[in-house]
């Protein structure tokens, strides 16, 4: 009997050895058709995946926890684990059990990790969002310089930029990477910045960031002696790029993805938008989380995955290059005017697969026949688009895109001849090479397929020979081909034992074979295997032909995305009646009848109109231009603030805008402090978060910035809040000298319009009727005389007794103010709510008067003038 301690089995010894190299990852250990996990990995995975936790054998006297997932369904489980913050090391069998047995009966199948799956290194179609990038970023600090590099291995995009640490948060917010690499020395310092961006943090040793080795690492990827052809890179930039390459080698086990040459970006080339502003404006994600309700979801009319990713990049990074902006606008304008061109182009683009991600999978040897057909189908559509519009008088940007669609005829012909129309998912399934492409394959297939017919004829011969009509020739993986009949005919078959050789007896069936059947089986099996091996060889050749053309194919993919975005933005402008903005180097900000695109779309679905408003932040003498906006809550102040910020973003990304007219002087920075939120995890109250964000604006905004602020100072006492809001507005006007919209409930601040040249009062119009407020959502020049807070509270459903008490207190306070600041005395004289006389029971609504009852019965449209006059006399007599 066992003492409870067991010797480690060879298989478990192998597992523990492999696991020791991947302590921070779950190990998917391949055992036949399952990936199995053991010990703590099994406990963590079973809980995360909600699957059964079992046990297998013993270790150190205790049961070994175990769970497993089927190999064929592994991608779904991988996605769940990655989203829950795990990393997974995929350990595959490197040989078959039969090959292992050749080394000895108890030999363990060789296994090794073939890939480390992390959030930033996903390539599978099922693990990625087709319409979004999946960036892996690296931040490097070399002495006093720092840089950020990022790559999407699913598309090959590779970028780098010099970046001081103070700008890291906003850039991560722009890129929204899935994973960020940092040096171990910076892990603690940068943890919060990376967490705020919603990314996973991975710390690497200093060797990964060694700038002296980085240039050679990156050059090796592109097969060049030096990086001079790609530009001049500083040491920090090389360090960040080198860390990315090193990490990809680690996670991909030496199989590097297909990367484009690194593009160096200038930090001043795009509008700077910090994380708080992106969140407040809901550019690419709604405050509630997810894409729905964001500006991106509202404007996206793209029909290709590549176009959708390009649209998101442009929305996240509005340009500050006037030539670039106007080239984009010209392309959109042409597509808008040429309806037939736009319609035909979009119809063709709908059939374009995702070339970039197909190329990435093929480069990492994770692709299949469908990736080859994706390239072929994309080439077909590109050729059709290019031929149709080759002689069209296109604007320069569209002309360049169309020109890049041609020149791929040889590759298209090769793939068209080689591939069937709809191939299987995996190369090992075979059947994806078209008949007539390869003589050897056709010959093997003929033998394989005719063998089936020969089997059928042989079965009929055996039926005739034995007289057993139920006799069948069948096949399974254990016995191969065999002759089967029911047990009732066994004696007859045994009597022919010289001809029919017994193989197996089951409960109801008896199985035999013959010499000729065995020989035929050999020929058929060899033909099938030979055909499959030929197809695999041809797949490898076609894959290499595609990868050899990766550079031009990448250019083609970008051209198709450019065409998609231009036509999609034109489609948006046509559908929503948007107009081309004027964008220049001035400090103008003039919008006529502007609308909030997301709110307008929501109202349209409900059948309600959107009230458009003008905004004019122009200054004649170079001074600040700020509107001080007053008015009640619920009147549309926040919508007005946001819509003008969004119009600036849309204009500089190269899109038309929701307005009748817009003239936007380049905006260098966009800041938004709208809405309330806290950060309890860091001990920050709502007011503290508001002050932190306001401080960031006042410390960074330049004279080209656009700032929108809503209710600064509301989270503290009245006089504290007023003083903070007052001082903030003065600083924006006198120091930052920027353009801005400043919404407030502190009506005392409206006096600043008379004291500051660049401040102008504006208000949201309302009407009051029978103690109720009606929102007109119309912004006009002037100041609000009150906030209508009590009326809004009544609309919200506060108890009538509370609303009535609020009116009483408000009237008393306003009277004290009119009497020379006697509010404190008034407050002291006010009886406490609990000390007031018990509130009378609500008075039941009076019965309608006779006159009111008479009015309800009338139908004005049915009365003649004489009858109407008679009714007036009758009602007069009732009053």
Automatic annotation (TrEMBL):
Domain DNA mismatch repair proteins mutS family: residue ranges: 705-721
Instruction: Give the gene name.
Output: mutS
| Residues noted as binding ATP in the record, renumbered to the chain | 631-638
Q: Spell out the HAMAP family in the cross-references.
A: MutS (MF_00096)
Q: What does this protein do?
A: This protein is involved in the repair of mismatches in DNA. It is possible that it carries out the mismatch recognition step. This protein has a weak ATPase activity.
GO biological process terms, alphabetically, are: mismatch repair
Recorded protein name is: DNA mismatch repair protein MutS
- Does the keyword DNA repair feature in the UniProt annotation? yes
Q: Does the keyword DNA damage apply?
A: yes
User: Which keywords does UniProt give here?
Assistant: ATP-binding, DNA damage, DNA repair, DNA-binding, Nucleotide-binding
């Amino acid at each position: 009997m066992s003492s409870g301690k067991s010797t480690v089995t060879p298989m478990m010894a192998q597992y523990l050895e492999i696991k020791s190299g991947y302590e921070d990852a779950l190990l998917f250990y391949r055992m036949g058709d399952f990936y199995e996990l053991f010990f703590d990995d099994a406990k963590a995975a079973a809980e995360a995946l909600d699957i059964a936790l079992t046990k297998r054998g013993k270790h150190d006297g205790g049961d070994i926890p175990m769970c497993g997932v089927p190999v064929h369904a592994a991608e779904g489980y991988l996605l769940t684990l990655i989203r829950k913050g795990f990393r997974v090391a995929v350990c595959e069998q490197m040989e078959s059990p039969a090959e292992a047995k050749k080394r000895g009966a108890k030999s363990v199948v060789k296994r090794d990790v073939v890939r480390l799956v992390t959030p930033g290194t996903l390539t599978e179609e099922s693990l990625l969002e087709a319409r979004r990038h999946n960036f892996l970023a690296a931040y490097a600090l070399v002495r006093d310089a720092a840089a950020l590099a990022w790559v999407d291995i699913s598309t090959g995009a590779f970028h780098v930029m010099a970046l001081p640490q103070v700008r890291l948060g906003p850039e991560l917010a722009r890129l929204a990477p899935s994973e960020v690499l940092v040096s171990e020395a910076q892990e603690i310092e940068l943890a919060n910045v990376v967490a705020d961006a919603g990314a996973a943090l991975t710390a690497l040793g200093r060797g990964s960031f060694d700038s002296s080795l980085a240039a050679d690492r990156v050059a090796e990827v592109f097969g060049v002696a030096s990086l001079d052809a790609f530009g001049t890179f500083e040491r920090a930039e090389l360090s960040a790029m080198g860390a990315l390459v090193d990490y990809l080698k680690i996670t991909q086990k030496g199989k590097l993805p297909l990367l484009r040459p690194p593009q160096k970006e200038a930090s001043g080339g795009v509008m700077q938008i910090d994380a708080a502003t992106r969140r407040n404006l809901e550019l690419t994600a709604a405050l509630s989380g997810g894409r729905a309700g964001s500006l991106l979801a509202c404007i996206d009319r793209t029909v290709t995955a590549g176009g959708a990713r390009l649209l998101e990049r442009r929305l996240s990074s509005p340009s500050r290059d006037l030539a670039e902006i106007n080239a984009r606008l010209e392309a959109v304008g042409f597509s808008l005017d040429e309806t037939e061109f736009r319609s035909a182009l979009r119809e063709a683009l709908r059939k374009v697969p995702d070339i970039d991600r197909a190329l990435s999978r093929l480069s990492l040897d994770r692709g299949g026949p469908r990736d080859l057909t994706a390239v072929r189908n994309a080439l077909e559509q590109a050729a059709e688009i290019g031929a149709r519009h080759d002689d069209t008088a296109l604007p320069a940007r569209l002309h360049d895109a169309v020109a890049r669609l041609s020149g791929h005829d040889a590759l298209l012909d090769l793939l068209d001849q080689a591939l069937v129309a709809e191939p299987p998912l995996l190369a090992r399934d075979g059947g994806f090479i078209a008949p007539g492409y390869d003589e050897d394959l056709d010959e093997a297939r003929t033998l394989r397929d005719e063998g089936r017919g020969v089997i059928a004829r042989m079965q009929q011969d055996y039926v005739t020979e034995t007289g057993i009509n139920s006799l069948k020739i069948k096949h399974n993986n254990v016995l191969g081909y065999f002759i089967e009949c029911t047990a009732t005919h066994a004696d007859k078959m045994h009597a022919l034992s010289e001809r029919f050789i017994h193989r197996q007896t089951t409960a109801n069936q008896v199985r035999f074979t013959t010499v000729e059947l065995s020989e035929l089986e050999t020929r058929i099996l060899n033909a099938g295997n030979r055909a499959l091996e030929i197809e695999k060889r041809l797949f490898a050749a076609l894959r290499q032909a595609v990868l050899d053309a990766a550079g031009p194919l990448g250019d083609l993919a970008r051209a198709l995305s450019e065409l998609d975005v231009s036509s999609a933005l034109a489609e948006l402008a046509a559908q929503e009646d948007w107009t081309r903005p004027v964008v220049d180097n001035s400090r103008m900000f003039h919008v006529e009848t502007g609308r909030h695109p997301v709110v307008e779309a929501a109202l349209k679905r409900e059948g309600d109109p959107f009230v458009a408003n003008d905004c004019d932040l122009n200054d004649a003498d170079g001074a600040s231009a700020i509107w001080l906006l007053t008015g009640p809550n619920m009147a549309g102040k926040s919508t007005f603030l946001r819509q003008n910020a969004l119009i600036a973003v849309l204009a500089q990304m190269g899109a038309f805008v929701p307005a009748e007219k817009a003239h936007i002087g380049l905006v260098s920075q966009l800041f938004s402090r709208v809405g309330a939120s806290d950060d309890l995890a860091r001990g920050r109250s709502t007011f503290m978060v508001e002050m932190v964000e306001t401080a960031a604006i006042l410390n960074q905004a330049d004279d080209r910035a656009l700032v929108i602020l809503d209710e600064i100072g509301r989270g503290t006492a009245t006089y504290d809040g007023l003083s903070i809001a007052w001082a903030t507005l003065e600083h924006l006007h006198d120091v930052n000298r920027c353009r801005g919209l400043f919404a407030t409930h502190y009506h005392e601040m409206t006096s600043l319009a008379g004291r500051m040249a660049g401040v102008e009062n504006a208000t949201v119009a309302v009407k009051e009727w029978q103690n109720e407020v009606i929102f007109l959502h119309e912004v006009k020049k002037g100041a609000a005389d009150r906030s209508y807070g009590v009326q809004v509270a009544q609309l919200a459903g506060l108890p009538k007794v509370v609303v009535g008490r609020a009116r009483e207190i408000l009237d008393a306070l306003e009277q004290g103010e009119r009497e020379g600041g006697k509010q404190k005395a008034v407050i002291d004289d006010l009886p406490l709510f609990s000390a007031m006389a018990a509130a009378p029971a609500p008075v039941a609504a009076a019965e309608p008067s006779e006159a009111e009852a008479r009015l309800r019965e009338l139908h004005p449209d049915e009365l003649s003038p004489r009858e109407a006059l008679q009714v007036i006399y009758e009602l007069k007599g009732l009053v």
